[in-house]
Amino acid sequence: MLLIRCPYCQQTLPELEFTYAGQAHVARPDAANKQISDEEWRDFLFIRTNVKGPHYERWRHAHGCGRFFNAVRDTVSDRFLITYKVEDPRPELSDLLEKSE
Amino acid sequence: MTVLTHAFTPGPLVSGGAVSVNLMAPIGRFSVRVRESGRDALGAAIGLELPTRIGARTKNGNREVICLGPDEWLLQTGAGETADITAACAAIYAATPHSLTDISAREITAKIEGPAAIDLLTIGCPRDIDQIAVGDGCRTVIDGISVILWRDGEASFRVDVWRSFAPHLLGLLQTGSAELSA
Ligand SMILES: [Zn+2]
């Protein structure tokens, strides 16, 4: 079983308490201020990177504090490089890989 | 088709040397949500401090609260105190917006005690129970069901579970207890 660190609970806890919630940092088009094309909506709604390797993704501590948070997980090894709060900035991959060496 | 759930009569479900399971009497329960700016005022209205570390608890008389998330608490009270709490919180609502939801009827509580209490919990709960400090608690999962686990002593726990899931959980605890005392 994977052990996942919840950045809100500040504890490393079993995978069964968490749910996966898709790719992180997918920004919604600013429809209030400009015309959004069908292609932009398609990209926002459906197009994902499907990374092989480190993937920025959302998780939810569903059977715990209930919070969504972000993580970088290697989709090949399932290793988590980092988990961070939704309000924290997106960490640079090069920094994470350097730290994990 | 509507099927009525159990009456959940309080009393012993499992008695034994290794572990005992008791269904506890109904109490008052509230789900509490408030922003940081209103936390102290709401705590004062309820009559205890709202702790900020997830898993931490505070108690004052019959009233006990556990921090479940960054802005979420569960409050348990005596069965007859719910109207007082609702009124006290309503009185400060204009200045301190918050959410206070009476969930007294949503959950029941089972008390699990005895030298094999931790063993019994681990049949369905993936947490390392030893990592939960005495006097703390957490929301976690037992066999797919969300529960709130209170650690009252080294070998004394309370489990709050939604009543519609309770027959499954209580059945699991009874089966597990039989295994452990065999
Ligand atoms: Zn958490």
Query: How far is the first residue's CA from the last residue's CA of chain A?
Result: 23 Å
Q: Average pLDDT across residues of chain A?
A: 95
What Rg of chain A, in angstroms, do the CA atoms define? 15 Å
Largest sheet of chain B: 6 strands, antiparallel
So what's the overall shape of chain A? Answer: globular
Tell me how many strands of chain B there are: 11
Task: Label the overall shape of chain B.
Answer: globular
Class by SSE composition of chain B? alpha+beta
Identify the strand order in the major beta sheet of chain B.
Answer: 1-2-8-11-10-9
Structure class of chain A? alpha+beta
Distance between the termini of chain B: 39 Å
CATH architecture of the largest domain in chain B: 2-Layer Sandwich
CATH superfamily of the largest domain in chain B: Probable tRNA modification gtpase trme, domain 1
Estimate what percentage of residues of chain B fall within beta strands. 35-45%
Strand residues, percent of chain A: 25-35%
Task: Summarize this structure as a short list of keywords or feature phrases.
heterodimer; A: 101 residues; alpha+beta; Folate-binding fold; globular; B: 182 residues; Gyrase A, domain 2; Alpha-Beta Plaits; 2 domains; 5-stranded antiparallel beta sheet; SoxD (chain A); sarcosine oxidase activity (chain A); Sarcosine oxidase subunit delta (chain A); SoxD_sf (chain A); Sarcosine oxidase subunit gamma (chain B)
Short description:
The complex is a heterodimer of chains A (101) and B (182). With 101 residues, chain A is α+β, with helices and mostly antiparallel strands.
Can you describe what's shown?
- Chain B: It holds the Pfam family SoxG.
- The complex is a heterodimer of chains A (101) and B (182).
- By secondary structure, chain A is α+β, with helices and mostly antiparallel strands.
- Chain A is built from two helices and six strands, in the order E-E-E-H-E-E-E-H.
- Chain A has a four-stranded antiparallel beta sheet, with helices on one face. In chain A, strands 1-2 form a two-stranded antiparallel sheet.
- The two termini of chain A are 23 Å apart.
- Helices cover 22% and strands 35% of the residues of chain B.
- Chain B is globular.
- In chain B, strand 1 (11-14) and strand 2 (20-23) form a beta hairpin.
- Chain B has 182 residues and is α+β, with helices and mostly antiparallel strands.
- Chain B has helices at 39-46, 82-91, 117-122, 166-181; strands at residues 11-14, 20-23, 28-33, 57-60, 63-69, 72-77, 99-102, 107-113, 137-142, 145-153, 156-162.
- Chains A and B meet through strand 2 of A and strand 9 of B.
- The structure holds zinc ion.
- Zinc ion binds next to loops of chain A.
